[in-house]
Specification:
The structure is a homodimer of 123-residue chains. In chain A, a hairpin with a 5-residue loop joins strand 2 and strand 3. Chain A has 6 helices and 3 strands. A 3-stranded antiparallel beta sheet of chain A has the order 1-3-2. Chain A starts with 10 loop residues before the first helix and ends in an 11-residue tail after the last helix. With 123 residues, chain A is of the alpha+beta class. Chains A and B meet through helix 1, helix 2 and helix 6 of A and helix 1, helix 2 and helix 6 of B. The structure holds a DNA duplex (30 and 30 nucleotides).
Chain lengths: 123, 123
DNA sequence: GCAAGTAGTTACCTAAAGGTAAGTATTGAG
DNA sequence: CTCAATACTTACCTTTAGGTAACTACTTGC
């Protein structure tokens, strides 16, 4: 209210706008785990994504200075992606989120269905 | 392929599907900070959101067992929201993300503009 | 001259998400 | 009888996002 507008006073909204989106945190997590991945390798690790959307996400992450794009003009061309120093700062958040995800996944497996039979996919 | 489908083998995608979305992590972070908030209070803290979208986010978070809905049939009715035990498990992730957000915000302020004058809100 | 291979880009179309506004329930005040 | 208040819900419409498929560039191999 006093110096900045009310919707930018909170840095959370800014970072959310950068890393949110259907596949964005997942891409960051992949790069955090595997250090360097080529375009096709990322696409292979995300079954449902299209080249158009993946390109879009990559461009936006690059524009936010979270990933680095390494283009090698070979034939055919090779493009590798990796986290920047800023992108690497998300490491603990990404890994923390993954730990919670794994925990919940185990809990839901105990509660909702037997580990050896598939009942959730029946409906 | 053997027991689970290939897109659910990674718990990250599951948790992302639950907490992702335009305002979802922000709502969780508000409730993590303020413990209990009424519908109108959440709406007031998120300037750009509409009642329809806020209701949708709240319902989905409730369905994921991340928030608790407390309906008091007073006149007019009072509805309060708070994190469930599971939702509270996101505390460190949410706060860690906020710390990174604040750090980046300060860094960007040093790089892109002077700290004492407002140049970003001029346009 | 055509296919293959990588990493895209572009055009076109459809599906989903979100905005706006009005309606719902309840009861006390006027 | 109507207004006001809270927390929605629903209908309708627009905007946006995403899917699909074709095209680009360049060189090797046939």
């Amino acid at each position: 209210m006093t110096a900045r507008n009310d919707h930018t006073q909170c840095p959370m909204e800014s970072i959310l706008g950068q890393i949110m989106g259907p596949w964005t945190p997942y891409i960051l997590w992949l790069l955090d785990n595997e250090k360097t991945l080529r375009f096709g390798e990322i696409a292979a690790r995300i079954p449902g994504i299209s080249a158009k959307v993946l390109t879009d996400r990559l461009r936006k992450l690059e524009a936010s200075n979270l990933i680095h794009r390494d283009y090698r003009p070979t034939v055919p061309p090779t493009v590798s992606y990796s986290l920047t120093a800023r992108g690497a700062e998300l490491h603990s958040v990404l890994q923390g989120l993954n730990e919670v995800a794994i925990r919940w996944d185990e809990e839901d497996r105990e509660t909702q269905g037997a580990p050896d039979t598939e009942t959730i996919a029946a409906g």
